[in-house]
Design a protein that fits this description.
The complex is a heterodimer of chains A (106) and B (202).
Chain A: H1 3-17, H2 25-32, H3 40-52, E1 56-63, E2 66-73, H4 75-105
Antiparallel strand pairs in A: 1-2
Chain B: H1 3-13, H2 19-38, H3 43-50, H4 53-62, H5 66-74, H6 82-143, H7 148-194, H8 197-201
Helix pairs in contact in B: 1-2, 1-4, 2-3, 5-7, 6-7
Classes of the chains: A alpha+beta (106), B mainly alpha (202).
Amino acid sequence: MDTQLKRGLLDICVLAAIKTEDSYGYKIIKDIKPYMTMSESTLYPILRRLEEAGHLTVRSVEHNGRLRKYYHLTDAGRQKLKDFAEEWKEIMEIYEYVIREGNDNE
Amino acid sequence: MNKTEFLESIKQKLNGLPEKDIQSAVEYYEEAIDDRMEDGLTEEQAISEIGTPDDIAEKIMMETSIPKLITAKAKPKRTLKAWEIILIIISAPVWLWLAAVLIIIFMAVIVAIMAVMIAIICVVVSLIFGGLGSFVAGIAQLINGYGYPSLALVGMALVMTGIGLFLVIPIKKAVAGLWKLIYRFIRWTKKKIIGNRKAEVQ
């Protein structure tokens, strides 16, 4: 897959993973696993980037005597997910057009 | 490699980056290991699942901005002796200029690519609008009775607009290609600054 496209999709997947409830690194990876394999080394820079962009916020929560970082989706992040869904509709329309044309030519 | 060694190794490889960035990465990977061990993995299994410190450090550095990377690379890897500090201060103008020159070259390349992009867009726009303008002028001349020369003008105007319109699609592709080139150049520069880590391991 095109690297830039994949980068964008990874960002969206991470945002989707924290959509319903706040989550932490390991859980995000496990939740995304059925759809996309992501390593910790890939996830970490994405979380940093999304935090800098204001799409999510981080807070530390005590867990078993240590700190665990939970990621929370902001309104801006939610908007990004919505934008993605809108864009994807357009892409799907183009996709259907491409497939249909291909069949006509055969 | 145990957890402490693993985290220490990450710290070493990120040396030069701002302290809080290093701290944040170490905390993150410590949590990642602890979470896996809580899930039933042994320390070793947890570490091997997470990856190598080299890979981790490289991915973090690829996300770091170029000025930050250059500062990180320029920073000394150990505490300096007094005479070394004096030497650096004396020679400061030299490496400061060098770093500045490198950054300027980097920006110059990007500006150059963008200039090409703007130039080709301008050519197409001027062809189309120049053509349309000449067409209107030619028609006006015809109406005012300038005769055959104005017909030639109308003809040339149509040719210009035609060439302009014909070039729109290739130019669009060229501009997209140039954007990709800029993106690639930034990644290439970062890779150069980070250096070839595989060579260091061998």
